[in-house]
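Hi D.,

Good news: the full-assembly prediction came through. Inputs first.
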Amino acid sequence: MKPRLRLGLPKGSLQDATVELFAKAGYEITVSSRSYFPAIDDDEIECMLLRPQESARYVEHGLLDVAITGFDWILKRDVVEVAELVYSKQLKRPVRWVVAVPDDSPIRAVADLAGKRIATEAVELTEQFLAEHGITAEVEFSWGATEVKPPYLADAIVEVTETGSSLHANNLRIVHEILQSTTRLIANRAAYADPWKRAKIDGIALLLKAALAAHGKVGMMLNVHEDNLARVEAILPSLKSPTISKLQAPGWYAVNTILDEGLVRRLIPQLKASGAEDIVEFPLNKIVE
Amino acid sequence: MKPRLRLGLPKGSLQDATVELFAKAGYEITVSSRSYFPAIDDDEIECMLLRPQESARYVEHGLLDVAITGFDWILKRDVVEVAELVYSKQLKRPVRWVVAVPDDSPIRAVADLAGKRIATEAVELTEQFLAEHGITAEVEFSWGATEVKPPYLADAIVEVTETGSSLHANNLRIVHEILQSTTRLIANRAAYADPWKRAKIDGIALLLKAALAAHGKVGMMLNVHEDNLARVEAILPSLKSPTISKLQAPGWYAVNTILDEGLVRRLIPQLKASGAEDIVEFPLNKIVE
Amino acid sequence: MKPRLRLGLPKGSLQDATVELFAKAGYEITVSSRSYFPAIDDDEIECMLLRPQESARYVEHGLLDVAITGFDWILKRDVVEVAELVYSKQLKRPVRWVVAVPDDSPIRAVADLAGKRIATEAVELTEQFLAEHGITAEVEFSWGATEVKPPYLADAIVEVTETGSSLHANNLRIVHEILQSTTRLIANRAAYADPWKRAKIDGIALLLKAALAAHGKVGMMLNVHEDNLARVEAILPSLKSPTISKLQAPGWYAVNTILDEGLVRRLIPQLKASGAEDIVEFPLNKIVE
Amino acid sequence: MKPRLRLGLPKGSLQDATVELFAKAGYEITVSSRSYFPAIDDDEIECMLLRPQESARYVEHGLLDVAITGFDWILKRDVVEVAELVYSKQLKRPVRWVVAVPDDSPIRAVADLAGKRIATEAVELTEQFLAEHGITAEVEFSWGATEVKPPYLADAIVEVTETGSSLHANNLRIVHEILQSTTRLIANRAAYADPWKRAKIDGIALLLKAALAAHGKVGMMLNVHEDNLARVEAILPSLKSPTISKLQAPGWYAVNTILDEGLVRRLIPQLKASGAEDIVEFPLNKIVE
Amino acid sequence: MKPRLRLGLPKGSLQDATVELFAKAGYEITVSSRSYFPAIDDDEIECMLLRPQESARYVEHGLLDVAITGFDWILKRDVVEVAELVYSKQLKRPVRWVVAVPDDSPIRAVADLAGKRIATEAVELTEQFLAEHGITAEVEFSWGATEVKPPYLADAIVEVTETGSSLHANNLRIVHEILQSTTRLIANRAAYADPWKRAKIDGIALLLKAALAAHGKVGMMLNVHEDNLARVEAILPSLKSPTISKLQAPGWYAVNTILDEGLVRRLIPQLKASGAEDIVEFPLNKIVE
Amino acid sequence: MKPRLRLGLPKGSLQDATVELFAKAGYEITVSSRSYFPAIDDDEIECMLLRPQESARYVEHGLLDVAITGFDWILKRDVVEVAELVYSKQLKRPVRWVVAVPDDSPIRAVADLAGKRIATEAVELTEQFLAEHGITAEVEFSWGATEVKPPYLADAIVEVTETGSSLHANNLRIVHEILQSTTRLIANRAAYADPWKRAKIDGIALLLKAALAAHGKVGMMLNVHEDNLARVEAILPSLKSPTISKLQAPGWYAVNTILDEGLVRRLIPQLKASGAEDIVEFPLNKIVE
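Then the structure:
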């Protein structure tokens, strides 16, 4: 029987983004609404959806070979961090775990948490944080809706936030940022020591990173006469030299390059002014640099 | 400032049934989709929605005066059980916490759990159960979808079930029933010692129980001539004598009684055969016996 | 093992109304979105959801004992019609099977159908209808969306309609009404000959009819002084004499009666003008007359 | 051809509550999702859904005979107010039109509005209000989402609110309440002068009011021995004397009364303590007093 | 503090298409379901969603710097039309404002509108149109569902339509087309005079136009031997000469060109017949010509 | 009047995939939720949505010129199979028609079906299959939910399945596979003999196939120095030689090729190891080989 890699995918807010990322990386994952075991078009992989809060534990114990989860959930786990994958659902910013209190709370600094009641979904993270600051407080596991617990059911909360808007909507103020967390591809130590599994895992990591590298990047093609070539080259970012080839039309060159989509907004007017013609932007799937 | 009673209502599967029960009891609770603080048409009560898993803790600590939660979540809490309220969402059966394993698992009895990995949302309940049976096993908190964990991520689970259909759908077999649980109205000890709060809490309990008593019960009115009155009375359940009054029409009586809706199915044909006329069944809101 | 009655319930447009009717009749049927076998709170009955088009066939063949279906689907089936149940989903009107053609079609009468192409979901019904009229035409089974087939894919259709609005929206004109159909409770001949099953089936029929009888009916209570009693009695419908009883207050009577909800609209002003006081209307569940 | 009454029903937030109110009053209105012309089970009435903002205009001009709309939209219309119907969607409170400004706005009183830009859906109402206060300001029609316009697009708004929660969520502060508005049944002057139409309209009004009167009211039946009758009578509200009748059982009386559902919460414990037995609460459809 | 551009985006039917167009142009706009202030990944821009009917007014008054709205809503506004953006939601056809009447109305021409009642959401546009034709009629603002108003509440309507299907479904006939309208990028005069804002606005316009230019266009690559090059070139549209480069394989050329997607349907068979090989079509994001 | 091609598109599970495929092929089809006649941006084509079960019949009879349907529905139809289009909704596997029975059924082989009751939506297919095997059984048309019919209403079913998961969920076991079916473009014989229609149909077929060919394929561009060119060429699949062109930078070449997306997963690491630089993968719309 051939070996298979057991892969944990995050159930919940990261699920759709993860499936989409694998799609860009070349893996078609089909999630059925009634099953926690998505199909994947690679016979050597078995997928399972599970909450990111618990996949690190299962990777550590070897029940999964590899999983996608958040940095926040692997703090105290003995696993291999194979790759960092920055693709959180909205603005590609890392999520942040923060201490938050009601707008009118007397708590102003971490020290003020002493003796208080803190609700959080991340009990281990919170206790480690308090220990590092030498503070004693009551940390209670919150089963959800943590933001509505202050002031009646908690004095403070430790909660994850991207933009802070949910905290704001619940009249909460951020007192301290505990850590920033991005998504990680993690592997079990023993699995990563196995040559077949390691090659498989590294291949997945390479393709996921290539897909992420292409996100927000675009290809650009333009034609330019040799008289203007230097000016056009000067405008293009120097980091990466563009691919230039001679056209059939005498004196003309094709320039092909890869750019940040955000940068295109600024460069196009300049390129046009410098003699670039037939500027065309096209989408990319993957970039391997 | 007038005193207020702080009431915890169950977020989740029991939420709609609870709001409906309070409506039958005479309290209009308005849940807004964006808020965890429903409005109630009683100025002396403040409501909050929260997971039944955690409301008992908050009642024990005095952060809530009273709450609706399940018996399964108050096992080790020092709270007052004011009333048992049997109204779980489907068939009015109590929910059951069971040990379940894959259909083809070698685990056949509780003793076989020794040394196994058990996933559950109810860690305390499971550990207490294992201790009572003198068994040592690894109990892991499950963040959800517990039924899909065996066999890869767990050897057994401890899970709540009403009809067993979800377990069956996941090819799991029940090994043992740990406890049956119904819904309870619980109160904080100190709050229940306060006369104003106690009267308020007892009033709520009385009305909830009156509303539950009316559930599945109906009123029945019929007319009967004095010649047939004894036969009709003999058919009606003897527990509770019906209310009988003389009609204006000479020799006729009106009979008014309360019956189990299920019983009506059997009695109507008999009543008709015994001379009852104008049989009418009507709905009831509350019954105080 | 105790006997059980196998009951077919209509999947589709009548489903919710049927479950509601059984609820009024005193049976709680719980439909799960993933199952065709609803639960019912009567251990002697097994339910199954299936399309009304095919339940009559299964009752005829004895695979089901009893079913709820439309008169239109039992035309040529050898089954027992136990009861007619008029509760089609909207305005309590029977549904009608009609021949319809495009507004601008030359087909004006049944005779014009000769040689035409007719699309319908009810092939047997249509063929029987054509045979009765001595007409030869091509009848094709339509898998759905029959109304959009004319004029390209059919010259005429035979389709079910309640209000005619869907036909109108598709620019179709009714040429002929083939039959009106209401809902029926049907039973297998052999099952209905079995005493236990027959009693069970008749009991269901009695309760369903009692629930339907109460639909659109309300109870009314009022108080009236003896001086006005005759006037009030004269206003109330003569079909059914009201229940009258003496009140404790000297000279006053309580009048209790059952009325068509639609009639109440006309009677209340007259009753008030005739001296009726404290007029109260209340809902009814069942009426057995 | 028989005469028909043309009735305008409110499209939007009041729609479902209106259909439900008519149902309680005895009229079955069937709204199809694709049509603005609901069916009603009264051949003498034609219904049309339209925005409450414009129905008063159509009633005034005689294009509709009668309509349900808000007091706020009939201020300057020459129509007959047939009845006030208090049933706004949530807590049966009237809606309020208020002037609101950002929490940190320097506008503190009506006088501060002079020269400001005010956005509102109710331009006429706002201009009349400003004129009454002798204030000149720029009033702009807002096509929706008025609450998000301050501070960028408006200095203040005139907006309708029930609980104020939407204003609060947008960081707005109420400066002044312009008027409270409840729902009204209005009629065209000429239609109301026509005897047939007037009788029809008054009948609708009577039934709607009877249905509203029953809302929040319940019926209560109890049995009591003559020794306790006076005590029980003393507890029941004195406004309306209950209906008392002698039972067949010697010395026993049946008491039947109508109560505010809210009052029941307080009375039941007292009634029980005073010797009332078999207390049953039942729902009511209509009350005509 | 750095300057920011205040941008109005159209709430409603154009919203999703607008967000998608900005995405193609390189701006990521994130709309939250609870907010009218979408996030955009450009710190120099602030977005706000508002109805296209009112954004022109706010741009004229300088409360917004720039907005996307329809030509129909800027007729009488003193704003700068920066660009026309043809991307209405369905078939890229401009929307049309038309006069429509019931199918069986005697109104046949604009002149027949004299003295009639016209319902419309575009009161200004309608009044201007009537004035230009020297016609006096009663124009009434319609709050929505304008198509259902004739014949009871209006004799005619002035309404926007793309395909006419909604008019047809309501049995309305088009009498006259008043104007065709496409989407525009408009700017406030003062803002457009400010150099920083003007550069910013022109940049947005350039990128939106480049994205629109790429819509419906595709890139095509093919290889061709020098013997067939002329024939292939003859087939490709002459407007724009393709980019031709020599391949490594002797005698072979790569041809790269941009085509209307619709044209591809006709060209591919011809190209193949003329010796083109390895024809590949690929998507484009932006075209700057 | 110009000729038009009448095209039948599959209503139901293949609908979205078909619209998407036409979009890739360059045809924009706009489906309105209320209409069975989608718009298409080609004036020479008229579309109609209809169930794949019946479109073959309409093509055979000439009521449609061309349609997309399944091979399973054209078995006995006299139509032209223009093209096979493999794009079934999930994993691009063909669907299979199978005989299935309950897990615990005694039926083990086709021969065991003799005398049994078989439910199926595909009566013709089933009867032909039984005839080929010389078996007599009762075949009943099933109006839907065929999987839940065994064991009560049928002994076996003939049903379509892709992955078998729905059969498994209903405790059914596959006894025999009758046929595999893929999607086909079929044409009416007379229409296909008409030169204008044939050219139109062949053009559609060519473009649909080109779009399908591009599915799962991607373009890849990379740069490589002449020292490494041979090694890179050796890695790329030999079937199709890549397009190689000289870059402006001395000694460097651009390599452009088309690959299976699935293959990319394996090639990228090898290409990188062989000296390929700036590897970029980009999406393709169509491939014409």
